[in-house]
Write a structure and sequence with these properties.
With about 180 residues, this protein is an alpha/beta fold. The protein has one domain: P-loop containing nucleotide triphosphate hydrolases (Rossmann fold, 3-Layer(aba) Sandwich). It has seven helices and five strands. Helix 3 crosses helix 4.
């Protein structure tokens, strides 16, 4: 696939900063379409991650056909996301927001996140798995530790990441 088929996935455990970054992206990066993964998951069967990511990749293909770079902001593991992208013929650039385990525990309990507060260790495990994850070609994967950066720095870093993808798309379209 070409860079024009690139999908961005901003992942991370509950409390890592995904929603904050998604809000920062929305309206700040012309050519990008930021979509909160919770919005997409509300239209799908609960806990069927393979089906959710297949559906999400179909939405991303529609966004791409409309000339925008899709940015999905939600919990996703490379083992779920990359296979769905492969089936859809899309390439994923995934950025995982990771965070200190104690900060995740604190944020999950403090904010609730539905019933997530009852199981903060599940979110610590998601964070640990994302820290250890890697990509396989043609996909890309990187992490950004939000416990080392403030909200504004995290927002700026994610906006820069999305902006770079928009630039790649424009450059590919010009060829």
């Amino acid at each position: 696939m070409t860079t024009t088929s690139e999908v961005l996935v901003l992942s991370g455990a509950a409390g890592a900063g995904k929603s904050t970054a998604c809000v920062a992206i929305a309206g700040r990066v012309p050519g990008a379409c930021a979509i909160d993964g919770d919005t997409l998951s509300s239209a799908r069967r609960p806990w069927d991650y393979d089906e959710y990511w297949a559906f999400t990749m179909r939405v991303c293909a529609d966004v791409l056909r409309n000339g925008l770079v899709p940015v999905i902001c939600g919990i996703g593991m490379p083992g779920q996301v990359f296979p769905a992208a492969d089936v859809a013929g899309l390439r994923v650039d995934m950025l995982a927001l990771v965070c200190d385990p104690d900060a995740i525990r604190h944020r999950v309990v403090e904010r609730g996140y539905g019933g997530a507060w009852q199981h903060p260790e599940k979110h610590v495990a998601v964070d640990r798995e994302l820290r250890d994850a890697a990509a396989r070609a043609p996909h890309r994967f990187a992490t950004f530790d939000t416990s080392l950066h403030g909200i504004d720095e995290t927002a700026d870093a994610t906006v820069e990441w999305v902006s770079a993808a928009v630039v790649r798309r424009v450059a590919a379209a010009a060829r």
